[in-house]
Specification:
This protein is α/β, with parallel strands linked by helices and 389 residues long. The chain contains nine helices and 16 strands. It has two domains: 3-140, Creatinase/prolidase N-terminal domain (Creatine Amidinohydrolase, Chain A, domain 1, 3-Layer(aba) Sandwich), CATH 3.40.350.10; 142-388, Creatinase/methionine aminopeptidase superfamily (Creatine Amidinohydrolase). 34% of the residues lie in helices and 19% in strands. The chain is elongated.
Length: 389
């Protein structure tokens, strides 16, 4: 935990403190930011305040005084609910406005961890509650050099496995041998294990109308055979199996044959143009030093798809933050599911993945964009043509 950096960020944001709260490990962000040991049992409420100036302080239950062990500052104890309220009032003494894992109207669900009742209690004590989304970005979404190197290496391995998966399908189709979505999924997972990669779920291997379900995943008892003339979408994500590793997450699409129909080719061209326009928008803004927010990038990709007459078929945000979890805690590329006003900060990474999902088939093209100091880069291979299987 970097208290000096947190306090500087609090002062820049006009905040008197950052109040962390949890009960039964409902807020994983608090444990990661504060570096609280994962094995500690938590069955009672605790509070920890990092003030903009001065020493942090905490409030813990008498039967679980060890919960915040190792964190700096005095730890006051309580047992009854009356003592809890009194202790919280003492903890917040001198504060007028504090950040919590709260998002007004749940606009950013990834940060909306604190229950409404606790927010009401803090407000009842005369303290204004502000959202911590921007703070979380600084201490959760910002990568280190090691994170970046792990991402790039994962990308090299994932891109190779993705190419192998499409070759497997092409070989089977040319040989007239059966191949299913689920078989390709199993192949990818086996290659992940062989390559020192891990994933939390997936991958997505989907043909035709299944590819129009953005979260479709073939199951042993629910999958389709891949045939000539089918559209095929593969979305795969993984990270190195080591501490400090972050995810790499891409989607490519193909067609079972040498000549895709004009309708499929047209949708592919629109999707990839929307992807490229969004990437270029990010590059130009970062190079110019212009502040950039997640919703702005979504607008660029979505407006092109709307102009081409497919707006109603683009049914999710343009991209998501990427970190130690495939959907990270930083700014999302979103003005559709949410209005994400968080600034895209240096040393962060996100996906750009527009899609068009028609009743007959779906096309998505996904790349990862890393924002450094004054530049933005796509971190892996970029699909320019439909894969011919």
């Amino acid at each position: 935990m970097k208290i000096d950096e947190i306090q500087e960020a609090l002062r820049e944001g006009g905040l008197d403190g950052w109040l962390f709260f949890d009960h039964h490990r409902r807020d994983p962000l608090a444990y990661r930011v504060l570096s609280i040991a994962a094995e500690r049992v938590v069955t009672r409420r605790w509070y920890y305040l990092i003030p903009a100036r001065g020493e942090p302080r905490g409030l813990v239950h008498r039967i679980e005084p060890f919960v915040l062990e190792g964190l700096p500052g005095e730890m006051r104890r309580y047992a009854s609910w009356q003592e809890q309220v009194e202790g919280l009032a003492a903890l917040l003494a001198g504060c007028r406005r504090v950040a919590m894992q709260y998002s007004p109207e749940c606009a950013i669900p990834y940060v909306s961890m604190v229950d409404a009742g606790t927010v009401e209690l803090v407000r009842k004590l005369g303290v204004e509650v502000a959202g911590s989304a921007d703070l979380i970005q600084c201490f959760e979404a910002r990568w280190t050099r090691e994170n970046l190197e792990c991402h790039l290496e994962a990308g090299r391995r994932v891109d190779a496995i993705r190419a192998e998966a499409f070759r497997l399908v092409a070989d089977k189709l040319r040989a007239g041998e059966p191949i299913t979505e689920f078989r390709v999924k199993q192949f990818i997972l086996a290659r992940f294990a062989d390559s020192g990669l891990v994933t939390d779920h997936g991958p997505i291997v989907a043909v035709n109308e299944n590819a129009s379900n953005p979260h479709y995943e073939p199951q042993p008892d629910a999958h389709r055979e891949i045939r000539r003339g089918d559209c095929l979408l593969i979305d795969l994500w993984a990270r190195l199996d080591r501490p400090g590793a972050v995810y790499y997450d891409v989607t490519w699409t193909g067609y079972g044959g040498p000549e895709p129909p004009a309708a499929v080719e047209n949708v592919f061209r629109i999707v990839t143009e929307a992807r490229d326009r969004a990437v270029e928008f990010v590059r130009e803004a970062v190079s110019a030093g212009r502040p950039l927010r997640g919703f702005e990038v979504d607008d660029v990709a979505r407006s092109l798809i709307r102009e081409r007459g497919f707006g109603q078929y683009f049914t999710h945000r343009t991209g998501h933050s990427i970190g130690a979890e495939v959907h990270g805690a930083g700014a999302n590329i979103d003005n559709f599911e949410t209005h994400d006003e968080r600034r895209i900060i240096p040393w962060s990474c996100f996906s750009i993945e527009p899609g068009i999902y028609l009743p007959e088939f779906g096309i998505r093209s996904e790349v990862n964009v890393f924002v450094g100091e004054g530049s933005a880069t796509v971190t892996g291979e970029i699909q320019r043509e439909l894969i011919r299987c």
